[in-house]
Amino acid sequence: xxxxxxxxLAPSPDLLEEEHGPTGMLKWLTSTDHKVIGKSYTITSLVFxxxxxxxxxxxxxxxxxxxNTLVSQHLYNELFTMHGSLMLYLFAGPFAFGGLANFIVPLxxxxxxxxFPRLNALSYWLYLGGGMIMVSGFLTVGGAxxxxxxxxxPLSSATNTPGAGPDMWxxxxxxxxxxxIFTGVNIVATVFYLRAPGLTMFRLPIFTWNMLVTAILILxxxxxxxxxxxxxxxxxxxxxxxxxxxxxxxxxxWQNLFWFFGHPEVYILALPFFGIVTDVLATFSRKxxxxxxxxxxxxxxxxxxxxxxxxxxxxxxxxxLLPFFSLMTYMIAVPTGxxxxxxxxxxxxxxxxxETPMLYAVGFLVVFLFGGVTGILLASPPIDFAVHDTYFVxxxxxxxxxxxxxxxxxxxxxxxxxxxxxxxxREGLGKASFWVxxxxxxxxxxxQYILGLHGMPRRIAEYGAATGWQSLNQVSTAGAYLxxxxxxxxxxxxxxxxxxxxxxxxNPWDAHTxxxxxxxxxxxxxxxxxxxxxxxxxxxxxxxxxxxTPNGHAVPSPVPAAVGSLAAPGSSDGGAGGSGHxxxxxxx
Amino acid sequence: MKVEGxxxxxxxxxxxxxxxxxxxxxxxxxxxxxxxxxxxxxFVPGAYYLWWSRxxxxxxxxxxxxxxxxxxGVVAAFPSTxxxxxxxxxxxxxxxxxxxxxxxxxxxxFVLGFAALLGVIRESRRGGAV
Lengths: 588, 130
Ligand code: HEM
Prior knowledge:
The complex is a heterodimer. Chain A is mainly alpha-helical. In chain A, 62% of the residues lie in helices and 1% in strands. In chain A, helix 4 (117-135) packs antiparallel against helix 5 (164-193), helix 8 packs across helix 11 and helix 13 packs antiparallel against helix 14. Chain B starts with a helix and ends with a helix. Chains A and B meet through strand 1, helix 1, helix 4, helix 5 and helix 6 of A and helix 1, helix 2, strand 1, helix 3 and helix 4 of B. The structure holds protoporphyrin IX containing FE. Residues 53, 56, 59-60, 80-81, 83-84, 87-88, 92, 148-149, 394, 398, 401-402, 405-406, 444, 458-459, 480, 483 of chain A line the site of protoporphyrin IX containing FE. Protoporphyrin IX containing FE (HEM) binds next to helix 2, helix 3, helix 13 and helix 15 of chain A.
């Protein structure tokens, strides 16, 4: 147990109480340092991402020609179930709130660690255990779970999908569900209680805000998932009939429970990446976030609305209140639109440079916008009735999920990689990986929209030659191989930076927020000193006193005259910035 | 602390409104109960924070013009290493596996969990790292 004191006013090596704790394997097993845990989470989730990606390659290869027999129908079912489950439960979420947030949020709020370090470590072990259990379903006799990532009743009953694989899937979700809940608690407590002096709530970086809201969403949604899993297990083993009609239960109840979790989950997977992109765009535009408070309110309203749109996944069950859910679903487009305008406003007339993280962030904007627009189409019940369960939907949700989790996620990975490791990645390889991914992405998913409109159903392993779907499927598969190549380039990039390190320095991007005030990688307990916090971008104010952010809001630096008018709404709302402004750096 | 409490209350109010509308329009119980849960999740901690924010000392992190000296001093005690989360994690996984492969892994899991509980308590008492 070490006592962490607030860092001193000026950099002082006396505080350098470097840990001489265990190293190697033992360090990995016993560390409660949020940076070690964050790295473990990041690496583990990327491993699951690669596994799920390989499964996708097998599926796409299977679909290249009609009546292909590369994999059996049964194996195909296992593959898409595990691909979806791994991507959603074990990659996208844990990568964001277990990996990046774990590492970055304490740094961004100027805290020595997460509020509950041991709970944090427990989260990781539950996650790793759950993940291993889910994947090892493939080793059982009956194979892994094969009822889709949504496990609809009655398909998920013991008669329809018997065997150990589905049970392992259920247990895995219980374990990872609790791990997510614990991380959520930890993030909320860290943001509420461990902020540095002067860092008011309305000066938090947007990434931290989004993680806070995500954590609250996790606390709303994941307990429902855990209880649904327990009910499902009881149905399968104890003979209860919660979801089976025969015993008086209701299969639609499963859909209600699942989507009450599932739709917030989709935003749990999106909001952290919105946060990453906001910070990246602001950094590489060298401007404050445009409309900071609007951004925060948009995040909160997206979160709140997302818990009341769950039944739009159930339009076709015919049991739901179409007008209510349709209206709510349309409404969610409004705050998302606000975010888009703010992102563009942030870039507007900034002095933009396009390093790899920025490229990925802009790529996210394009891809997510497209996915969002097709989402608005699907929010209309008449259209959804026509394309429900076709490849149109597959293309839509990949555009949203891939856009946020992969484009947004890689933006964050490339952005914070120097902070994680103290090394730079290679710009050339990074840019190459982006362009290959961007092209590959459209080549993969645009044909799927068309296939969906032609009526190709999702979750089929084979289609007849007479359908005429072959050529579009071939294009889509070629795109998938490009995506594979792009991820490989990124991994090579990391390998190169590991073999031939280029030191990064504390703040290679000239970024704004507190995590860049400390060394890369940060020392034990994170900070030797903290710059004075007078706005939402303390490090920038400190490094560029001539361009400091007055009143804590807006008025961008490089080209103040041109953007002043645009930024006015942001700066006029600035209660948080408040009166006692002290010029950056002068508080020394 | 005010902002923190208000954020949670706002979420609570919104969820409460949706809960009421949903109940009157659909009479469907499961969704209503879940929305009610979400409402409480906003109200209970939110109200507590707001109530607490009035009686606690003002915190430097809520003060926009706080100097860094205001926040100087001890933040909290943080454990730097501990093996018990790992032990507890393995225990939980074994208890979970018992749901799949039969009960024999559960006792081992519970023993590990119990050991971890004792371990953490001892560790905190001693105030030292492992
Ligand atoms: C590497 C590029 C990717 C490719 C080529 C790919 C391909 C596929 C394919 C072929 C399917 C099966 C479609 C069907 O038969 O219905 C699928 C399903 C799915 N994918 Fe991906 N995918 C990729 C990335 C992702 C990512 C990044 C995510 C989420 C973060 C994701 C989430 C899902 C989900 C949720 C399903 C539905 C599973 C189900 O039907 O139960 N995929 N994907």
